[in-house]
Design goal:
heterodimer, A: 115 residues, seven-stranded mixed beta sheet, four-stranded antiparallel beta sheet, B: mainly beta
């Protein structure tokens, strides 16, 4: 089954304790992206990757890191989490076909609470 | 300036009736795609329907149709015969196509702030 898998689904942690949210897709997609969703703000892009070893900042990259060492994986790293990073996080992937009609497939989300 | 605007924070519709969710967009790129996603209370993002800027006909997928008015830069989602399970947040999104060196294309997805639809029995 084609899917994007995020782990963990839920995490409560404390300020300053490094954490990683993993994301894996089995569709051989080149493009992967991380979003955060906050009430009233919709989804905002954190980082994206066009392919292996190619990453770039989205709209809200501060406080986050990513890496893309393999095509299927795109982990999101919070080196020193702070309470304002409490949010619902989504990983998504899509193919980079000709034109703009490739829908992004989303993971089920990770609800992160930073105390 | 916002690239995607959804002016209805919340809407109610009676079960079995049709409902239109508004979306306007702003782009100077001639090649772009418009998407609608559904997010039920369980949280996952579900792709519903796609409309390309060069498509001559409005997109349809089952009970979902997209009322695409290019000159007005609007891409409203129409849900026919609403069901209780349609109660959810709905997000409009746009991707501007950027040609890549190897011939493919990609552009980041920009989301509106969403419309919460509630279907009344």
């Amino acid at each position: 089954e084609a899917q994007v898998t995020q782990n963990p689904r839920y995490l409560i942690t404390v300020t300053g304790k490094k954490l990683t949210v993993t994301c894996s897709q089995n569709m051989n997609h080149e493009y992967m992206s991380w979003y955060r969703q906050d009430p009233g703000l919709g989804l905002r892009q954190i980082y994206y990757s066009m392919n292996v070893e190619v990453t770039d900042k989205g709209d809200v990259p501060e406080g986050y890191k990513v890496s893309r060492k393999e095509k299927r994986n795109f982990p999101l790293i919070l080196e020193s989490p702070s309470p304002n990073q409490t949010s619902l996080y989504f990983c998504a992937s899509s193919a980079t076909g000709v034109g703009s009609n490739q829908p992004q497939h989303f993971g089920d989300g990770t609800r992160l609470s930073i105390l | 300036a916002q690239k995607i605007t959804q002016t209805q924070p919340g809407m109610f519709v009676q079960e079995k009736e049709a409902v239109t969710l508004d979306c306007t967009y702003d782009t100077s790129d001639p090649s772009y795609g418009l998407f609608w996603y559904k997010q039920p209370s369980s949280g996952e993002m579900i792709f519903l329907i796609y409309q390309g800027s060069y498509d001559q006909q409005n997109a349809t997928e089952g009970r979902y149709s997209l009322n695409f008015q290019k000159a007005r830069k609007s891409a409203n989602l129409v849900i026919s015969a609403s069901q209780l399970g349609d109660s959810a947040m709905y997000f409009c999104a746009m991707r501007e196509a950027k040609r890549l060196n190897y011939g493919g294309s990609q552009g980041n997805l920009i989301f509106g702030k969403g419309t919460k639809l509630s279907v009344k029995p």
